[in-house]
Design a protein that fits this description.
The chain has 248 residues and is an alpha/beta fold. The chain contains 9 helices and 11 strands. The chain has a single domain, classed as BirA Bifunctional Protein, domain 2 (2-Layer Sandwich).
Length: 248
């Protein structure tokens, strides 16, 4: 069985991050190693699901004012703000036969690795179907997935810190979003690492690596030049284009 390639925390432009998803899927399709990638976003970005209409979901003018980018990913699901100071993101790329061909089951498997990671820093979490991880009944992580040419991509974000007012200033959720009552209601459903542990980001990054690699045969690697070149091509031809991001 092939060893897992672990790519430690990197920071990329939003267009590059979404392009790398497709480039690494292609690499695994061609026989490259199953890969777990940890990464962050700079600048911050609203990432919308494949099937969403950007104008329905995002206040593009507010994004411009705050210097926040907006990109479309290749998986479904809802829009989310990936704040460079408050989010940690992971992606798992593997032949489906190595994990499962059932996307619903894949959520439980990969979320289990995240739950292990949180346990390393003393946070007790649990899986909430279909694709969330919760702490004390509040969502701390969401995931999305796609199966392409026999390769499974499961990716998700871990909320390290939380700025709900910033989040809902760029996501269109109705006029009530500016009210204290609305923010308080969301706070009843969403949480973050910092609400449970006074811990720095670097410690959380180490815990993620520990939790995701537990029980696996793995090595620490890096993106290949072929993957990087392919991703750069995809940025220019697809992920940075208006046709892709404004397509629906």
């Amino acid at each position: 069985m092939m060893k897992w390639r672990i790519i430690k925390h990197e920071t990329h432009h939003p267009h590059m991050n979404v392009a790398l998803e497709e480039a690494i899927i292609e690499s695994v399709t061609e026989g490259g190693p199953p890969t777990i990638r940890f990464y962050e976003w700079d600048p911050s970005s609203v990432v919308i699901g494949y099937f969403q209409n950007i104008h329905d979901e995002v206040d593009l003018q507010k994004c411009d004012e705050l210097g926040i980018h907006c990109v479309r990913r290749i998986t479904g699901g809802g829009a989310t703000l990936l704040d460079k100071d408050r989010e940690l993101t992971y992606s798992v790329y593997a032949p489906a036969d190595l994990l499962t061909r059932d996307i619903t089951k894949s959520y439980k498997i990969v979320c289990g690795w995240l739950i292990n990671s949180l346990a390393h820093i003393g946070i007790e979490a649990e899986f909430k179907p279909i694709n969330d991880v919760i702490v004390n009944g509040k969502k701390i992580s969401g995931t999305a997935a796609t199966l392409r040419r026999g390769v499974l991509l499961v990716h998700g974000t871990l909320l390290y810190d939380l700025d709900l007012r910033k989040m809902f200033s760029v996501l269109k959720v109705g006029q009530e979003k500016i009210s204290d009552k609305f923010i308080a209601a969301v706070e009843e459903r969403v949480t973050c690492v910092r609400h449970h542990k006074d811990i720095n980001k670097e410690e959380v990054k180490r815990a993620l690596i520990e939790g995701f690699t537990e029980g696996k045969d793995f090595y620490f690697g890096s993106l290949s030049e072929k993957e990087l070149q392919h991703a750069r091509y995809l940025v220019k031809s697809k992920f940075a284009t208006r046709e892709w991001n404004l397509r629906r």
